[in-house]
Amino acid sequence: MRSRYLTTLAVVIAVIIGIGLCSCKKRESVRQDTAPAESVEQEPAREDMLPTEPASLEQKLYKQTKIAFISRRDGNEEIYVMNADGSEQKRLTNNPARDDTPSWSPDGKKIAFRSRRDGNWEVYVMNANGSEQRNVTNSPVEDGDPSWSPDGKKIVFSSWRGVKREIYVMNADGSGQRRLTDNPAEDGHPSWSPDGKKIAFSSVRDGNSEIYIMNADGSGLENLTNNPVVDGHPSWSPDVKKIAFVSYRDGNFEVYSMNADGSNQKRLTNNPAVDSMPSWSPDGKKIAFYSNRDGNYEIYVMNADGTEQKNLTNNPAMDGATSWSPFLVSEEKE
C-alpha cells in the first residue's frame, strides 16, 4: 500500500511540474514576441481618496447644528448664527434697531426673535438664512421672549399688552393670539417643552423671580424653585427630563440644572462673572450660554454636567442670548 501511495504521489507531482514548465514556456514566448513595456510609476494616493475614520458624535453635532445669538460687533444688537464649534459666524439681521432673543423653529427652517425696528418691541419670524423677516405680533406694546411649540405651529411669548407682562400664545403666522397667564405679578421667559405638554416660565408672583411650569393651555400651574433670590430663563432638555436655568442664589448669576419636577437642583458654572441664558444642544449632551468671565460677554459651551467650558466667540463686542438649533441634516449612516 505504501509503495502504491508513493507512486501515485510521484505521478501527481510530475504532472504539476509539467504544467508549470509549459506555462513558463508560453509566458516566455509571449515576452519574446512583444516589445518590452515601459515601466509606469504609480501616483501616490490623493488625500481625498484615502479612507477616513468615522466622525465622532461630537463632530456630527458640530457639523449638523448651529447656534443663533446676538452681537453688538456691528454697532447695535443683531442676530447672528454660527456653527456649533464657533466657526463661520454670520449676521442675519441688519438694521439700526435692536434685534435679540432668537429662537429656532423645531424644523430648523425659521428663527423667531424680538425687534424694535417698528418703534416698540415685537416678535418677528425670518427664514434661517435671514430672509423674509416679518412682524407677527403687531401690537402697540412690548412683545418678546418667543419659543416655538415642538410641532412648529405655535409660538409662546411674553407681552405687556395688559397692565403687566403675561404669557401669551399664537399661531406661527401671528394669528390667534391669546393670554395663558393672568395674575397681578409679571410672568416672562417662556420655554415650550419638547413633548409639547408643558411651558416653563419665570414669575415674580411669590415676591421674587422663580421658575414655574404649566400645561400648554395655561392650566396646572406649579412652582419648581423656591428661594429668596432670582431664578429665571428656563430651558428644557431635549428629553424633557431636565430644565437648565439661571440663579443668583450663590451671589452672582450662574447656570443651574434641575429635574423637570424641580428636584436635584445643582450649579453647573462657578465663577465670579455672570453666566446666563442656557440653551441645550439637540442631543442633550451640551449647553450653550453667555458669560462675561473674559471681560466682556461671549458665547460659551459646556457639557451638560458643567465640565469642559470653552469660549466659542472672541471679539471686543457683546455676544449673548443663545439658541441652539435642532439637527439640520439627517444623521450619517455608520
Layout of helices and strands:
Elements lengths: L1 H32 L23 H8 L1 E6 L6 E6 L6 E2 L7 E6 L5 E6 L6 E6 L6 E2 L7 E6 L5 E6 L6 E6 L6 E2 L7 E6 L5 E6 L6 E6 L6 E2 L7 E6 L5 E6 L6 E6 L6 E2 L7 E6 L5 E6 L6 E6 L6 E2 L7 E6 L10
Antiparallel strand pairs: 1-2, 1-24, 2-3, 4-5, 5-6, 6-7, 8-9, 9-10, 10-11, 12-13, 13-14, 14-15, 16-17, 17-18, 18-19, 20-21, 21-22, 22-23
Short précis:
The chain is built from two helices and 24 strands. Residues 1-53 and 330-334 have low confidence and may be disordered.
> What is the assigned CATH homologous superfamily?
TolB, C-terminal domain
Outline the low-pLDDT stretches: 1-53, 330-334
Q: SSE order in H/E notation?
A: HHEEEEEEEEEEEEEEEEEEEEEEEE
Alpha-carbon distance between the termini? 60 Å
**Gyration radius over CA:** 32 Å
From the 3D coordinates, which CATH architecture would you assign? 6 Propeller
CATH level 1 name: Mainly Beta
Characterize the quaternary organization of these chains: single chain
Largest sheet: 4 strands, antiparallel
Content-based structural category: mainly beta
Portion in strands: 35-45%
**Helicity, as a percent range:** 10-25%
- Strands of the widest sheet, in order across it, are 3-2-1-24
Number of strands: 24
